[in-house]
Amino acid sequence: MEGMGMKRDDFSWMIGGAQGSGVDTPASIFAKAVATAGFYVYGTREYYSNIKGEHSYFQVRFGKRFLRSHVNTVDLLATFDDETVARHAFEVRKDGAIVFDKDLGGNKIEDIPTLEPNVLKSLKAELDKQGLPYTIDGVLEVARRRGVHLYPVPYMDLLKVIAEKIGETLLSSLTRMTNVMSVAGSFALLSFPKEALADAIRKQFKSKPKVVETNIIAVDAVYDYVARNFQGSFGYKLETPKADGEKRILIRGSNVIGVGKIAAGCRLQTYYPITPASDESEYLEAHESIDLEGVIGSEVATAAKGSIAVVQTEDEIAAVLVSIGGGLAGVRAATSTSGPGFSLMAEGMGWAGMNEVPVVVTLYQRGGPSTGLPTRHEQGDLRFALHTGHGEFPRIILASGDLEECFYDVCKAFNFSEKYQVPVIHLLDKAMANADQTCRMFDPGRVKIERGILIKGKMKESETEGFKRFKFTETGVSPRPAIGTKGGISWYTGDEHDEKGHISDDPNNRDMMMEKRMRKLDVAAREIPIEDKLVFHGPADAPITVVSWGSTKGAVLDAMDALREQDGLLVNFLQVRLLSPFPSEEIAKALSRSKKLVDIEMNYSGQFAGLLREKTGITVDHLVVKYNGRPMSCEEIYDALKQIAPSPTRVNGPAPKRLVLRNGA
Hints:
The chain is an alpha/beta fold. The chain is built from 22 helices and 27 strands.
């Protein structure tokens, strides 16, 4: 299969519809079915910020080898409304297919109220060019002329048959099932076993037996119709992969963070609702009672049962302060938010920095500034995270690159926070939060909890006399008693203070306190393992080196594989994971053999490229950026790197120094 010059041995399926019509449900059913059959899955979810009515869509990419990103091209588009056809028909590749409602053909595209003017204008221009009417039939005809297979399904006629079978007189009560019916039509075209789909439906609606029964009847009707009329005409058949014995899990990114926090011993989570961070807290709310037995062999797991308190506060200011209170009380505490909420947390972050309180902030980046693109993707908060709060105080920033890293990095974030007594920002983004992926089963045995110099239980009398909470030490880290520890009397204030915590403006004390706090970053920089700072992927002598951070990792690695296998072009990739303290020496060493350096990130200005130059003096040769709110696909990166690649006929390639990627619907 081909798309934008990149050949693929996997398959991409997409479904779309109006928000509120149940787009997530059929996509989840589809993903579960193919994952259960043994395929690797990578799913992406796109939606508007309104609650109901606007267009949303879900792509499920699946194949026989590990997948780390989405693609631009669609192999099979499943639709049950006219807007999905209008928006996505031109994304379907030659020899791909569209399953659609046969009754929508005459609908005028001008009558779709949620189509933006520029989308409508573009559609009309294409239809005018080919002399076609401004209708869904016209859009479908453009696709057909490009070699796309069209499969009309009479949803309403089939619903009447279903209604008669189950004794339902009100047909409108069944129309919601057209979303699952479109999945059935897709699987029939691919000769995917009907029973496997039925099993996925049972899992999806396991607490609703009546819904399961009705949906399976609907699946039978559509599957049989498509098999009878179209089976074999598409030319693609899903062959179940051979079992490899690997245990895998299909999981959403926000849930990975929630599971990671439970395994890491987090026992207080605060939040104020905000997209996309809320999904994580809502997951934790649904799993507040924890079975600890056999999960973690640490001091946190002191009983077979435990719980995590999840508190929805009145705003983000309260959220960060309550989590700081948890840190003072000696529990592992965190808060989750996105850009606008993190803006409100700035003063609380400074208070935690001044008082050396361990707290973890999970920051899901999204499009900004202000409210920006509330449900869309960006990596625009790197500089903000580095400088949140006035003045200077130490903070550690860890950026995960994929869902597996997310799980293990959660515990590392807590460990760093407690060991060095600093705020830790776990930097994630919307793309990871809303990604569904098959991952290797997480291993709780790899989760090692380190609580630092935490005084537990009653202090010795020799320790209590003149106790100094902020005692000057060689590492900058002082003994920390939880509030309520007998003898561990401590004072906490937002002002500068002495070793006991009493307010002090003395210049000598100020110098010593500032140096004590900031010294922690030097210690952390020495002690944090290299694999938590950066990871080098690919051959050392490749002619192109990519440098990036965060969720671009998957698309970069998938593009690297394609370039090597299809074009013989070798690319290596430096993934930077620790952004504060910045591993300048390690990065400079890793890039010392770089011939052509390409920075890839999801923001306008190339924030990491600027940080790299600031900290190491290294300037990138090319900057590849994207900021339209849609994550980078492996196909986009593949095309960008091919433009940049040197060749015998062009020394530097036709690519400009700054290349902007613009794909996305």
